[in-house]
Design goal:
The protein has 282 residues and is mainly alpha-helical. The protein is built from 15 helices and two strands. It has one domain. α2 packs antiparallel against α6 and α2 packs across α12. It is globular. It comes from Actinoplanes siamensis.
Length: 282
Amino acid sequence: MTGDAGLFGPDSITWKLHREPILMLGGLRSLYLQALHPRAVAGVAQNSSYRSDMWGRLTRTADYVTTVIFGSTTEAEQAGARLRRLHSRLRGADPRTREVFRLDDPDLLRWVHVAEVESFLTTARRAGVSLTPAEIDTYYTEQLRAAELVGLDPATVPATAAEVDDYYAAMRPELRLTRDGAEAAFFLTVPPIPDRWGGLALRLGLTLGPPRWAYLGLAGTAIGLLPPWARKMYGAPGLPTTDLAAGLSARGLRALITGVLAVLPAQYRVSPAHRAALTRIA
């Protein structure tokens, strides 16, 4: 390699996972999981415009993750610095106690980080990506670099599958579905359609019905991929049959994406960010 491979590089488990388009579903799953933390979701509700600009917020979040995964070291560090500066200025109020808290509180940052990386990993595995136990632990350990970017001390972040399991067990008493969480989950499940999409559909003589139903199926799969205890907080079944159905749905979606990509020109089979990274490192 002749260029900067960034924080991870082509031999990492991180690149192996994040070249899979199915991880978009993992990102959606992580948002449902993150919304079960009362302070984390209150901080978002009180400081963001997701209700009026949900798609813009999701795009910015996806851009940040992509930069951290596939960007150069400088690009990843600059993105992390911008995020730390933003969080350092923001405050939220606990919905129950009204206590004011910082959005860069390490406990909140840790919850968001763990929910995100565990969701990416779990979704990939449930969709059929083959990983050994050692590779699973390696992915969590690699992601300590991403945790450090947002301002966390890596020594305080779960770095193996067993540590993540222990972390979730310790966090469960703090989690519950609040009004902010329910509203966020509703927006994730039935998002508003941007005006420009509706206008385009009308000009083409199309209806937005099929895309909306397709997205609803994705949201249902994301919820089904949650841990049983998290699904129960949303009032969804925590039964093993739900796990089975969600896993089959994720595998089917990955197979569909793989089939579509196989018939596309070569330049469309790799994401622009991944392709740029490969070019950069020659």
